[in-house]
């Protein structure tokens, strides 16, 4: 479904990605691990058109999407949940969700069905639907960011550090929603510092170091033998 081939990316003169290649299959959850600053978020931004690859290609469902604008990619079925969530703080929860519903081809009945589906996954958002997004806790804002992405009915979601700074109870809820998305056939490329969570929810794992993918293996293999995890992540 999604493929990066020899992607190089820069911020100014700083060479961040040094030939990153990875793949995500339809409905697959793939984890991207690595220490801070190795290029994981830049990899997601390269997919989403927010960091222009200087070399290499990004393809989605066989189509070259390298450098396409984010709104075009969203229409193709790619959703992005950034590390800083980027909800609209002055809008209510419901208004935030509706930003993903104002698109061609949706009638009122379909919009309500999508809202009901998200409220079923996140009952707390239904309770908070008239509350300003900026007044939510960190965990609640993360739920809202994921729920807003779900409104687009994406084929794949790029999740960047969804559990960062969250309490254990909230981490468990994020794990559950990743499971729900997977059961519904949504593919996920997950960037995460929580190694146990990533190993638990992913089918395959890529490990990055200094802008390069150093290791790729089934998550089951890494769960059975943590040698590689210790080598690259020290955990």
Word description of this protein:
There is one protein chain. By secondary structure, the chain is of the alpha/beta class. It has helices spanning 40-47, 70-76, 93-98, 108-121, 123-127, 138-150, 168-183, 195-201, 219-224, 227-233; strands spanning 2-11, 14-24, 29-33, 55-60, 63-64, 78-81, 156-160, 187-191, 204-209, 212-218.
Describe the biggest sheet?
6 strands, mixed
Roughly how many Å apart are the termini? 31 Å
Q: Give the neighbour order of strands across the main sheet.
A: 6-7-8-3-9-10
Number of helices: 10
Describe the structure using short key phrases:
235 residues, 6-stranded mixed β-sheet
SSE blueprint and pairings:
Blueprint: E1 2-11, E2 14-24, E3 29-33, H1 40-47, E4 55-60, E5 63-64, H2 70-76, E6 78-81, H3 93-98, H4 108-121, H5 123-127, H6 138-150, E7 156-160, H7 168-183, E8 187-191, H8 195-201, E9 204-209, E10 212-218, H9 219-224, H10 227-233
Parallel strand pairs: 3-8, 3-9, 6-7, 7-8
Antiparallel strand pairs: 1-2, 1-4, 4-5, 9-10
Concise summary:
The chain has 10 helices and 10 strands. 38% of the residues lie in helices and 26% in strands.
């Amino acid at each position: 479904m999604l493929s990066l081939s020899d992607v190089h990316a820069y911020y100014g003169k700083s060479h961040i990605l040094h030939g990153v290649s990875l793949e995500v299959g339809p409905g697959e959850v793939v984890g991207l691990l690595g220490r801070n600053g190795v290029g994981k978020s830049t990899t997601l931004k390269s997919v989403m058109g927010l960091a222009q690859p200087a070399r290499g290609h990004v393809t989605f469902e066989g189509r070259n999407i390298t450098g396409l604008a984010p709104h075009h990619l969203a229409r193709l079925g790619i959703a992005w949940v950034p590390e800083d969530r980027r909800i609209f703080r002055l809008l209510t929860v419901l208004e935030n969700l509706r930003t993903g519903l104002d698109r061609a081809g949706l009638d009122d009945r379909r919009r309500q069905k999508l809202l009901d589906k998200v409220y079923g996954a996140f009952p707390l958002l239904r309770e908070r639907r008239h509350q300003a997004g900026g007044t939510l806790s960190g965990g609640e804002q993360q739920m809202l960011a994921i729920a807003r992405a779900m409104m687009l009915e994406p084929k794949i979601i790029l999740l960047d550090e969804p559990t960062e700074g969250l309490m254990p109870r909230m981490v468990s809820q994020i794990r559950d929603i990743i499971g729900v998305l997977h059961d519904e056939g949504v593919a996920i490329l997950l960037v995460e510092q929580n190694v146990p969570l990533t190993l638990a929810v992913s089918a395959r794992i890529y490990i990055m170091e200094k802008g390069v993918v150093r290791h790729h293996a089934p998550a089951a293999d890494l769960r059975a033998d943590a040698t590689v995890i210790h080598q690259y992540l020290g955990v």
